[in-house]
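Re: that chain you flagged

S.,

Sorry for the slow reply, it's been a week of failed gels. I finally had a moment to sit down with the sequence you sent. For the record, here it is as I used it:
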Amino acid sequence: MKMVGSWLFLLISLQGYEAPSTPKVNCLIINLDYVNCIWSEQGSPEVNFTFFNNRFIKDHMEECTTYLQEKSNAVGCRLSFDMSDRFRTLTTKLVHQNKSYVQNHNLKSMVKLYPPTNLSVEMNKDPELNLYWNNSKNNQCIESEVRYRINNNKWQTSTLIREQNYAVPFPLKSSRYEFQVRARVNSICCESEFWSEWSQPILWDSMKGNNITDISGSSMSMWKPVLSLVGAMTLFMLACMLVYRERERLRFILIPIVPNPGKNLDDNVEAWLHGSKDICFQPNFTERVCPVREYRLVPQTGSVSESESNLSIPTDQSDSLSTCSSSTSTLPVTRYEAPSTPKVNCLIINLDYVNCIWSEQGSPEVNFTFFNNRFIKDHMEECTTYLQEKSNAVGCRLSYDKSDRFRTLTTKLVHQNKSYVQNHNLKSMVKLYPPTNLSVEMNKDPELNLYWNNSKNNQCIESEVRYRINNNKWQTSTLIREQNYAVPFPLKSSRYEFQVRARVNSICGESEFWSEWSQPILWDSMKGNNITDISGSSMSMWKPVLSLVGAMTLFMLACMLVYRERERLRFILIPIVPNPGKNLDDNVEAWLHGSKDICFQPNFTERVCPVREYRLVPQTGSVSESESNLSIPTDQSDSLVHVLFLNFHSSCHK
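Prediction finished late last night. Pasting the structure tokens below so you have them in one place:
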């Protein structure tokens, strides 16, 4: 009987048992000061969990140091917070005994600010009713919303406001205005999902012109005693009615009756076990005997890895053999290489527009068609402004809104029947223009002050300054939120050169890209002037010297050239026209006759040669006159030479 009771208790317990639900951790950044992680939203937990977190650092875990407790149980944890942590991933882990529950949290939109404070209302002469307040965080990442009502009528809500003031023109006379303000992080710094609570209301009465911030005290002060008395009397009457009507139930609640389970348990168990004799279990199916076969794995021949040997072997060996034999082919196999996938890189330029480029690996060989979702889910449209290079599209320029930076941009490149889709998270892909309007001033401290203008003038921008003295090594400053920088006690007789660059800071989601360095600016301690044209300033004192040296060098080279090559230059500049008939006759006579005192004296003995006389005999046949004059005997040359020599010798002896 005791065994039956135990089984019965176990069955009843199993029917009513429900496994505990997985605890869910919800984390919220409070006023950009700290993070609250809570796991008790489904009710107070029945066990004490141990909470771990990675402190926004990858591959790092540590236990919570500041638990939030409720009824002696830990229900949450408070974590420290830095501005840049908002755009990192927080990993949490709840541990109880041998169970752990891990979650990843993206907190960029999980920010809740404190309500605005110090509300005040003023009437000016326009007439205009001006409301002023202070946000809990005084920067350009905060936007506010004002609501007001007149004479306790319906609330009217303003548009979103970046400033900390609001105006109601031409307020109604004999009216009572009530204002409230709330705030949140705006879209410039990634819009938060949570508004702060409404501020304490403030009243303005046109008849009195006063500010009243304690609404409850002013409107309810005269009614408090009356309402307290009426409430007490009502509660007393309800208590009396409840006691009279529910006296029996109250008696059982106050004095519970202890049950006796053994009184009727035996009879019930006997009846449940034996039941009626007419009831019998009749099976309505026939069992089919199935043969059981045992298989063992036979390793295949050859070098087979362990993973392959554990696979099932084909039952029909003929199929496997035919498959293997068919794989052998005499045809050459050409390996196909797919074209490389084009990669699209998108960058937000100066928070004004987005440039998406797909030509970083080189100019594309084909013209892609570019589509994008314009930061809208389930939406695609073609690019309207392509960037081209050598008549090929290499990029696309997209319009941009401040809130787009924290949304996902989907791009698609299409060519023929191929498309390449990418998702882009652009929160850290911002490149600003370089700072401009640099100026340097010396004050009386003494201190050298540098000023500049960033391309975007808001608190999301941080700058970095570098400077050098007399063209020595660059010195770099720490990160600066303002648009000025000071160098204390500048060196005398020195020349300072400054440059500045900027980027989006960690408050608004730190960018990976710095702007280019600005144009340099110089300050000379001897002159105390600002010089932005480095090339002109550094060469100004050398220009006259170099000009004079260059001119003198050119003049000397010209003189040397003229002296050395004067004859050639004279003939080139003043060419001489020759007169061939002037001296030709005299020269020829002198050459022919020579001098009378000069005589040719031969130094050899003359050999007597016989002189023969020949006459021309015309050849037979028809011969022309020209041909007949050309027929000369073969030895005529010798006789002619001898005759000339005798004539010359006789002339010498005369």
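What I noticed first: Residues 224-245 form the longest helix (22 residues).

Talk soon,
D.
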